[in-house]
Automatic annotation (TrEMBL):
Pfam families: DUF1093. Coiled coil: none annotated. PANTHER family: HYPOTHETICAL CYTOSOLIC PROTEIN (PTHR36433), YXEA FAMILY PROTEIN (PTHR36433:SF2). It comes from the Bacteria. This is YxeA family protein. It comes from Paenibacillus larvae.
Length: 114
């Protein structure tokens, strides 16, 4: 019985760590943007403030950057994962996507040509 309690406790702690480490992106708000410009060097890393669009085409302006201090590729398309913090949308993570993977309304807003 003690063995099962120990296993359950370890499993519970592991589950808490996973949710705290932002592994579950499926329940995050998402927005899409295209990298335009060099970004602004702030505290040793490049920050970008760009218009982004959710799946319905609603514009959201967000500020984000790479934690490594590198620049993004010019004209790259990014899927941004967002959470609300103090009434603002904050980027928690991102991934580069191809223009074919963008939702239709986002393509219209970003003026993506086929």
């Amino acid at each position: 019985m003690r063995k099962y309690t120990l296993y359950f406790g370890i499993l519970f702690i592991f589950a808490l760590l996973l949710t705290g480490c932002d592994f579950n992106k499926s329940f995050k708000d998402q927005a899409y943007t295209q990298i335009k410009g060099e970004g602004k060097l702030v505290d040793g890393r490049y920050q970008y403030t760009l218009p982004s669009y959710n799946d319905e085409g609603k514009q959201i302006t967000v500020t984000f950057g790479k934690p490594t201090g590198e620049k993004f590729k010019e004209d790259a398309y990014l899927r941004l994962y967002l959470k609300s913090k103090d009434g603002e949308k904050v980027v928690t993570s991102y991934e580069e996507v191809q223009k074919n993977d963008l939702p239709t309304k986002v393509k219209e807003k970003l003026q993506v040509t086929p």
